[in-house]
Amino acid sequence: MFGELEHELELHVPASEAWDLFGTLRIGQLVAKELPHLFQSVELTEGDGGVGTVLKLTFAPGVPGPRGYKEKFTKIDNENRIKEAEVVEGGYLELGFTLFRVRFEVKEKGEDSSIIKSIIEYELKEENASNASLVSIQPLATIAELANTYLNKNKPSKQPN
Description:
The protein is α+β, with helices and mostly antiparallel strands. It has one domain (2-153): START domain (Alpha-D-Glucose-1,6-Bisphosphate, Chain A, domain 4, 2-Layer Sandwich). It is 20% helix and 43% strand. The chain is built from three helices and seven strands, in the order βααββββββα. The chain has helices spanning 15-22, 26-34, 138-153, and strands at 2-11, 39-46, 54-59, 68-77, 82-90, 97-110, 113-124. The chain has a seven-stranded antiparallel beta sheet with strand order 1-7-6-5-4-3-2. A hairpin with a 4-residue loop joins strand 4 and strand 5 (82-90). It starts with a strand and ends in an 8-residue tail after the last helix. The mean pLDDT is 93.
């Protein structure tokens, strides 16, 4: 069984600024600091932020779904501003999922705006099909909202000519 969930949010910053956050480890650091009700911890266990980097995510008590898992960055496309990570240990894999992938795409919308598209793709063994209800786009929507607030609060000021 295959499934996909999507969320889009307009960010009021250029795509390059949004990608400077989403395309790096900075998004994980921001999430760990600002969303303690969602994530108990986001730990770098391997790598430097490039393809092959592994993060250990531990969710806060009370968050539905798995308690935590390790994810590996499998794609970072700086030209097209796409970053993908797949669960490689624990979490959804223990619940019958054969694939659980998160993708962020930053698209240019205008000179001072962009779109962050968050996508979850998953594959699930038929005998575990009922576990599809555990998949929620809400955490990614919350991360996008946090990023929007953070980016707007920390915009570089434009100097008059």
